[in-house]
Amino acid sequence: MMTPFKLFAGGPVGSGRQYMAWIHHDDMVGLLLLALDNPQCKGPLNGTAPSPVTNKDFAKALGQALQRPSFVWTPRLALRVVLGEAAEVVTTGQRVVPKKALALGYTFRYPTLDSALAQLFG
């Protein structure tokens, strides 16, 4: 996603209202260690941060972090042409939360998108 933003062409995808999962790589490693080290951790574990955002909010935050505009909208049809059936996943999204990780006591180092982007680009 960074390439369009670096070229001043970043922005929301489709309607921008779809939720998208995101996670800082440090927290992804932390969740993997939780899964390996905690015998109570059985079955699937959502690898996502505890504060999901819409694609529009993600694009705005990424644009601010990179000091680039985030208004170039990518139409759903263009994604369909480029990605085919995979465009459906990108344009519909899913609001995912890490219920199991939180219940097992995992503390996210970067629970918000702003804190994660600040660490990566600040």
Short description:
The chain is mainly α. It has helices at residues 2-6, 25-37, 55-66, 76-83, 87-92, 99-103, 113-121; strands at residues 19-20, 53-54. Helices cover 48% and strands 3% of the residues.
Tell me what you see in this structure:
It is built from seven helices and two strands. The chain is mainly alpha-helical. The protein has a two-stranded antiparallel sheet. The two termini are 18 Å apart.
Write the layout of secondary structure elements.
Blueprint: H1 2-6, E1 19-20, H2 25-37, E2 53-54, H3 55-66, H4 76-83, H5 87-92, H6 99-103, H7 113-121
Antiparallel strand pairs: 1-2
Helix pairs in contact: 3-7
As residue ranges, the low-confidence spans are none
Oligomeric category: single chain
Beta-strand content:
under 5%
Helix-residue proportion: 40-55%
Could you report the average pLDDT, rounded to the nearest whole number?
94
Count of separate DSSP helical elements:
7
Supply Rg. Answer: 16 Å
Write the H/E string, N to C.
HEHEHHHHH
Largest sheet: 2 strands, antiparallel
Name the features.
single chain, 122 residues, mainly alpha, two-stranded antiparallel ribbon, 2 strands, 48% helix
